[in-house]
Amino acid sequence: MRNIIISTFILLCILTGCNTRQEQYRIGVSQCLDDAWRQKMNEEMARELLLHPEMTLSHRIAYGSNELQCAQIDSFISERVDLLIVSPNEAAAVQPAVSRAYRAGIPVVVADRRVPGDEWTAFIGGDNYKVGVLMAQWVNSIQKGKRLPLHVLEVAGLPGSTPATLRHQGMTDSLSTQVDVVSVTGSWYKEDAYKVVCDYLSTHKDVDVIVAHNDLMAIGSSDAARDSKGYGKGSVRIMGVDGIVLGLQAIEDGIIECTATYSSRGDMVIETAAKILANESFVRDTVLETIMIDAYAARPLLMQYGARRHDFETLKIVQKQSEMLWLQVQNGKTIFIISTVLVGILFLLVLVFLLYSQRTINKEIKKEIIPQLEEVQEAIQLSRRDVAFAERMKQIVDDHLNDPNLNVEFLGSELALSRTQIFRRVKTITGKGPLDYIRERRLLRADELLRTTDMTVQQVALELCFSSPGYFTKCYKEYFGHLPSER
């Protein structure tokens, strides 16, 4: 009996050691606002967190207050969180609190807005100055065919905030001399933008372009133009920033014309935090790329976001299944310990049962749960590759719109794909065949030329390689619903 009891406790220690959960790390998250962009970032972090069960997040929101955010960071310091993620309200004002956390030995990942100095562990964010440059490039590109100077209304973010300051500076530094810019403040919110733009348009009837510092203010500006006397839907060309789902849908619906991406990459923030906590190598300073999204690119991106949301829901189901399996093991171990105290012999029988159950559960995890996780990760990577492929294909087509040799074979050679592969991928991403896609891009370019230049219908048809002006007119009417001469 003595030998049985000793053997039982040895087996119990082995079983307990093999099934101990990974160490839990508490991550403090200090968000300056609760807007749509940061909600997207939080969702990305939550999705990536499903792959890191050793980490838990504690969120706090400062609602645009520097003082509150500093107090919340100090609270995280006193609680001795294992790592701190900070998205600063005003970088300079929040920097002292970030430094206090860093000096207290807490790793700090700064997201979105860079704080002064180097007392932080990692930075992940976009280049707000480059966003402003992209805004200026878009404005400069639409001057041709317009009366000059071009009148631009800039709807800026919160005064004093880093993004608002740098985006304004980048735009004004890069605008041509033929542009007249007036700035109003929308404070990042759709309702505020609507009010200030309505007030401005009520006394100014010469606005050609509105450039808003985020997509919500761009949508609010569009609503203001629609409701203002002397303006209407489509009379003012409008650009936003961020590339959030609401902005992409606004492009798809024709409410705004384009947006510049400003990635939140909450998944990368969590991935970097995990590497820091695991003492693995990581990139200390990551500046995210920003690109322009027009009506063509908005659709595949919306499809990608839809796929990601589906993937997120699938991951949550997988996580729930894993937790239930883990709970089964934990409950089984508890029963096992109680049984050991009461009856040694019965404990041995329960132990054998649990070892068998554990082996069965591990097989089930390897067979069902892990493959599901791998399939979800693969789907996310495929979605990203589709967007990159769509951007590359659009660039090639747009660069050769006046080339009579632009066809399926040419597109295949440029993209290193066979004819069959080109048809399949273009159909999947755009919903149409490659020839229809090429004709659509030519028609969109033709419409732009007719709007912004003095070229005749015959000249435009010849320039864009239509077989005849009559065929061009037929295609144009089928796509736009009216003759090119009726523009």
Query: Which CATH top level class of the domain at 129-261 fits?
Result: Alpha Beta
* Largest sheet: number of strands, sense, barrel closure: 6 strands, parallel
Supply the CATH superfamily name of the domain at 129-261: Response regulator
Percentage beta strand: 5-15%
Architecture overview:
The chain has helices at residues 2-18, 36-49, 66-79, 91-103, 128-141, 162-174, 190-201, 215-227, 245-252, 266-277, 295-342, 344-399, 408-415, 419-430, 434-452, 457-463, 469-480, and strands at 25-31, 55-61, 83-87, 108-111, 122-126, 150-156, 179-185, 209-212, 237-242, 258-261, 285-288, 292-293. It is an alpha/beta fold and 487 residues long. Among the domains are: 25-120 and 265-286, 3-Layer(aba) Sandwich (Rossmann fold), CATH 3.40.50; 129-261, Response regulator (Rossmann fold, 3-Layer(aba) Sandwich), CATH 3.40.50.2300; 420-486, Homeodomain-like (Arc Repressor Mutant, subunit A). The strands form two sheets. It has a six-stranded parallel beta sheet with strand order 2-1-3-4-5-11, with helices on both faces. Strands 7-6-8-9-10-12 form a six-stranded mixed beta sheet, with helices on both faces. Helix 2 crosses helix 10 (266-277), helix 3 (66-79) packs parallel to helix 4 (91-103) and helix 5 packs parallel to helix 6. The radius of gyration is 29 Å and the shape is globular.
